[in-house]
Each structure stands twice: as structure tokens, then as C-alpha cells.
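Sat 14:20. Reprocessing the chain from the morning session after the first attempt stalled halfway. Input below, unchanged.
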Amino acid sequence: MFDWPATAWASAVSFLAHHAIAPLLAFAHLDRVGDDADEIAQYLLIGLVQVAIIAGVFRPMESLRPLERWTDRRATRIDRTYTFLKLFGLIPLFAYVALPLLGHLLGATDADAAAAPLQLDVWLPWLRPHPLLLFFVYLAITDFVYYAIHRLQHALPWWWALHSLHHSQRQISCWSNDRDSILDDLFEASIVAGVAHLIGVAPVEYALLVLLGELLQNLSHANVRLRFGRVLDKLLVDPAYHRLHHMRADRTRPGLENCNFALIFPLWDIVFGTALYREPPRPCGVDDAGIDADNTLGLPGQQWAALRRFAHALTRGPRAPARPDPRG
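Finished this time. C-alpha cells:
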């Protein structure tokens, strides 16, 4: 009598797969490149669950226990659009089109699609009987890759030119995680998808890895007065921890904002000396009027502004010293 949720889920997956996903893949001539339509349908439904959690849990938390009180939340609406674009556009594109295509380009056949040069359950066969442990290892590896990428996004002028769009938001909320330059997302996703293929992550596992990471990052960006405590906040990134990463530069303490790069596990910050704890909350945004101007633009304008900064960094080297922020 308690199996109806699983039956309903399976029915929803089957309906979406056979009446929408499979015909769409066939129309786009991607039925041989894309993965199983059932898996794509399952991913999309999981994405809908994620949006429901953001809107139905994290957003009410922001209203009940806000860290910052905003009289006008209109600036956060554009970030919601970014979330939908990423969840239902970029992630499935890489999980079910780019990742399988990458496997074919690297020589994997349909009969041997799971083969990968560094496939973990081949090198560590004792992980095979423990799929949850194997999934956690995948999560830890991909999170470390994200940490390394994040450090580069702040260190390389041309990459910061793109990534700065994410940091230009002054009102960090549960929707802000996906506020990115599309080109920045493509660079990031290409690297992570490549590593995922090398270690043998299947497309549906990759999608679940990214979705789980996304959900945890939606929480860590939430404008909510929440700490996990002195033990758990060393194991998982909480909103108080990540908000310090988004703080504006403090001219009295140069470089303080170069901290807390980890997305899920603070372990990487702790190991590499970039962890910052027990600092009071600070205003978010960037101390550069040119980048801060992103907040006056719509989504196409923000994308174009990030591309212009990127082109400038590539052709003329690092930007000139930041102009003073008019907000003081």
C-alpha cells in the first residue's frame, strides 16, 4: 500500500520520456547521441523537485529569518531566470548530449560506453558493491574540481572577467547560485564533464551529482540567518560561510574576500588555507563600479557586459584599477 509514490514517479517518468523527450530527440537527430529518454525525463523531474524545494523551502526561510532585510527584491528576480536556464538547459545539454558525445570522441563504443581511462570502480573494485559510497567519492572528486576551477575563476583576469557577473549581485539569495556568464558555465561544465567521463561517471549519475551540488549551493546562497554549528560547518558549506565569499572588498583588510571558495565541502578551503570562519556578515557585491553596473542590465545585457570584459582581458591584459564604487 505504500508503493504508490514509486509507481506514480515511474508513471510520470515514462509519460514524459515517451511523449516528449523521445520525440524531441528524434526531431533534433540526437536520439543516437543523447542518453536514454527515461533518464532524461527522470532528470527533468528531479530538476522540478529542486525548483520546488528552492521556492517552497529556501525562499520561505529567507522571509522567516532573513540575514539582510531588503525593501525591494526586484534585483533577485533575474537570478531566478538564470536558475531555470541552467537547470533545464545547460545541465541536461552536458549530461545527456555532451558527455556521451565526449565518450564517443574518445573512442568508447555503444557496447563499451561505460569504459573510461580512470574508471574508479575498475581501479577500486571494492567500491562496486557500495553504490552510495561510490557516488559519494564521485561527489568529493567533482567538488574538488569545482574548488580548483573556482580558485582559477578568481585568479585569472580573463576568467574573473566572466565570473565577476556572479559576484556583481548585491542581494544574494537562494536563486543567486546560477547567476553566471553562459561562457563561464561552458568552460566550467566542460572541465567537470571531462573529469566525470575519465573517472567513469554515467550521465544519470553526473546529472544527479550536479543537481545535488546545485541544491546545496542554492541553500548556501540563501539570505537566511543560518549556521550549521562549529562541527557541521567544517563538513558542509552553510549560508554564513559562503556569504563571506561574496563580501565586498574591505580596504582596511586587503584580500579578506579571497576566502571560502569551496562549494560543498569546506575541507578544500581548510586544507589549502582559504577558510574564513567567525567573521560577522558583510555587504555583498564588488568594489568596482564597472562590474557593479551589471545590476542595471537585463539578462542579455549582463551576458554582453561579461563578454566585453572577457575580450578586454584577453586583448589588453588585466583591467585598469577599479573605479571607486559610488556606494562608498
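The two ends are 63 Å apart (CA to CA).
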